[in-house]
Amino acid sequence: MIWTSFLHAACLTLCAPPLQDAVVVEQPQEPEAPKAQPAVAPVVPVVPAADLRLHAERVYTGTGEILKNALIEVRDGKISSVRPGRSAPEGVLQVKAVTAGMIDLSARLHSNFNSVEQSTEVQPHLDVAGSVDLHDKRFARLARTGVTTVLVNPLDRNVIGGRGVALKTHGPMEVEARRLNGRPILRGAIGSEPSAANHAAFGRPTDFYSRRPTTRMGVEWEWRKAFFDAVAAKRLPEKDFPGAEDLREALAGKRTVMIQAWTTQDIRTAVYLDEEMQREGFGDLDLVIDAGAEAWKEPGILVRNSTIVVLPPHTAGGRVGSDGAFLAWNTASLLVGEGLTVCLSAHGAGPGSATLGHQAGFAMRGGLSFDQALAAVTSAPASVLGLSERLGTVHEGMDADLALWNGRPFAATSRVTGVLIDGVIVVDPR
Amino acid sequence: MIQQSTRLLQRIAQTHLALTLGLLGCSFLLSAQAEAGEKYAVRAGIVHTLAGEAIPNGVIVIEGGRITAVGSADDVKIPWDAEVLDVPHLEAYPGFVEAHTSSGMDRPNESVSVAPFLNVRDSIDPVAFYFEDCLRSGITTVNVQQGNACIIGAVGMVVKPHGMTVEEMLVRPRAGLKISAAPKSGMSRATQAQTLRGAFTGLRLHLEDLVQQKRTGNDFSRREALYQGRDLAGERGKGRAMMSKGWTVEGLELVPRGEVDEKQEPLLDLVEGRVPAWIYCGAPMDVRLALEIASDNGFLERTILVLDDSCWKAADLIAEAGVSVVLDSTLVRTEMDPKTEEEEEVFIPGVFKDKGIPFALSSRNSTTESLWFQAAMCVAHGFTRAEALAAVTTTPANILGLEGEVGCLCPGAAGNVLLTSGDPLSVTSFVEYVVIDGNLVYDRSVDIRTQHLLEGVVPEGTESHAEEPEVEEDTRKKAGDEGGSR
């Protein structure tokens, strides 16, 4: 309960301003094939979605409640009412269980090397939205697993890769129309990936990878230098550089800094970076560790800094990622027990693999309670995105993003059989 | 003979050495072996026999490694001298059966294209972590076969995932020959098909040649057999008419079986229907070739197809041929309509269930997506629990020819029992104990590798960062590092 109230507190602080520029979401009457869309989307007047009602034996609201035999009404893409203790009216869509649509903050739907500008290591001013391919089938596949919102980040080949973009997995075929303007998120990485394949220039530099950094130390140095330069540029305008303002906003806590750090040494580096900025009086980063597999080793430093952790998918042997990190299965449970906010991720796994729903189940195998697991794939990531007022729970006024289950959510013996996004039936369970 | 037994002794010695080293890291493997006639009993909260109703407060009595009685504690008397595992808080299930795998052996693919003379016996590693994981995931019977990258591969064997040596693990020694209808790397489909057909033509020519030699009084094959030290006594010294539903060689009864080239002999066993064939199909189009080879050479009835996930499209052909299949570990396949580019998911076991084809599931990995998870996926896609459990117990047992021997808790079956903390298909249940042949072989409470995976606990004294300075207490909740294999 302490944890839930923490979440609520987080929502209140995080998501106040951006809601005004919330996007007008186009409401197609039914899912459309991507190719049916014109190359440039015309300005479409808002079409109200057909009103929809569905009846569920159980609605897991995400606020600790389970509503039995609830009738959910959807109007204009929003949940207009959730009323428990109702019998199913004739002809209404009936399902066993409903949760909020799941949110994956590390869906890895970037278009690989096209998503990251590598001419310099620090690109905080770039927006990954410019490289998102909405025709990519992976969006629809994720939608079919019950993931309704994803954060798309650049590939981790830069130290600071740019700004991520939160998107619904179904909707208009224009990034700007589909993007969710919550809290801005700056994405970067610590570890071996940002320097992978780089080498020093011996003799004549002959290829693109003749560049810095070439070590973990170098990666860490680039982070500190970027923030230091950004602060310095404020006093010395001639030292200004693209992205300096973005970095200053991050230091001022106006945008979240999401850093990929798999191993305990990289998690330390990220937290120490934040603490150094505080010591120097530069600011205080709002830090989210992505793929923090080894967070279980030293939860203390995360607690000290109130860091949010996005965990990578659980694996059979425990080893995950290119840095050979070890994810113990009780990590989510341990961190939540320490009062930390934890989100789970399936790294974009589509149908037929270990989906985000399965990851929630695996975290329960490691000791997480059902409510905590539900939060880790719905309300917790919604709060990171600053969108708690719209996403992550099932009650009146929220976006009608729902995962419909044929049994108890996250059990290995049940699955997502239907999906609603903005009130549109993306996957019909019938 | 002498050479062979020396080699065997060497192998046993090596295995023992490896095992002694291995045991340092796997103390949970309880290694007492029951003597014949030794008695063991399990009393569990619920006994799921999978051959009838579940029995509350049930008792399983195992004598000499076999189940002798199963029933309610009120009806079944536990022998006074039996060792009893009394676990009223747990549920008993039969051990799961892995119908086909290439895990647990060293390098599963032989580069020689046609190599029926090989035997996985020489490659199975009793201390492989794979077998440990089998116990954790409740698998008590494993059919180990050569990998899929072959034309004609080795002879496989069925083992239990427990034992000091391959001999101790043995359940069934000659569990069939591995064949692949899908091209191995570097081969075209045509070359693969030609080589496959050619292997059987080669066998026929060899046998005809032997008969011809006998008829002309040429004793070259006999001298060759003696030169190689092959056994020509007993049955091996006698000739036998060829028993095959495909083709036969007239006069083979003239040739003592010991004189048949050792390289060809396993193939002759296959054609005579003495061992089953496990034919891998990597694409729907391979199914036709697999069935053609099997029916032309008379072993269709003893053929099991090992299918890639794409092969659901050939389900009609498979149903018509009446063979059983082992499904790929990928149970959901995304197919795209080439015209509309719309994708949809096909649940593969559902296709085979609808066509009435007997199928066994296979594990995707040895822990998280092991057989229990695959069966749970089937329930998630609309199977009944009984249907899902059958695909990891009784059906694979039937496919392996071990019907009534494994995969159920019934009198006469091997004493393989899982004790689970709850429904084995639940993600929050655990296998707490495993009994194989009436021996307690796994106890989760002392399984340090599971503790490591689940809780990050490292056994005392195995940290490799002992020289590193201690981190302050408050920053370090769990003692120890994970072992420094990074």
Helix and strand layout, with pairings?
The complex is a heterodimer of chains A (430) and B (486).
Chain A: H1 2-14, E1 52-60, E2 66-75, E3 78-83, E4 93-100, E5 102-104, H2 137-144, E6 147-152, E7 160-163, E8 165-168, H3 175-178, E9 185-189, H4 216-235, H5 244-251, E10 256-260, H6 264-280, E11 286-290, H7 299-305, E12 308-311, E13 319-320, E14 325-326, H8 331-337, E15 342-344, H9 356-365, H10 370-377, H11 379-384, E16 402-405, E17 416-421, E18 424-427
Chain B: H1 2-23, E1 39-47, E2 55-63, E3 66-72, E4 83-94, E5 96-101, H2 129-136, E6 139-144, E7 152-155, E8 157-159, H3 166-169, E9 170-172, E10 177-180, H4 189-216, H5 220-227, H6 265-271, E11 277-281, H7 284-296, E12 303-307, H8 315-321, E13 324-326, E14 332-336, E15 343-347, H9 348-355, E16 359-360, H10 371-380, H11 385-390, H12 394-399, E17 417-420, E18 431-436, E19 439-443, H13 448-455
Parallel strand pairs in B: 1-4, 5-6, 10-11, 11-12, 12-13, 13-16
Antiparallel strand pairs in B: 1-2, 2-3, 4-17, 6-8, 7-10, 8-9, 14-15, 17-18, 18-19
Written account of the structure:
In chain A, 25% of the residues lie in helices and 21% in strands. A 7-stranded mixed sheet of chain A has the order 3-2-1-4-16-17-18, with no helix packed on it. In chain A, strands 7-9-10-11-12-15 form a 6-stranded mixed sheet. Chain A is α/β, with parallel strands linked by helices and 430 residues long. Chain A has a domain at 102-387: TIM Barrel (Alpha-Beta Barrel), CATH 3.20.20. Chain B has helices at 2-23, 129-136, 166-169, 189-216, 220-227, 265-271, 284-296, 315-321, 348-355, 371-380, 385-390, 394-399, 448-455, and strands at residues 39-47, 55-63, 66-72, 83-94, 96-101, 139-144, 152-155, 157-159, 170-172, 177-180, 277-281, 303-307, 324-326, 332-336, 343-347, 359-360, 417-420, 431-436, 439-443. The radius of gyration of chain B is 25 Å and the shape is globular. The two termini of chain B are 47 Å apart. Chain B is built from 13 helices and 19 strands. Chain B has a domain at 189-265. The relative contact order of chain B is 0.14. In chain B, strand 11 (277-281), helix 7 and strand 12 form a beta-alpha-beta unit. Chains A and B meet through helix 2, helix 7, strand 14 and helix 9 of A and strand 14, helix 10 and helix 13 of B.
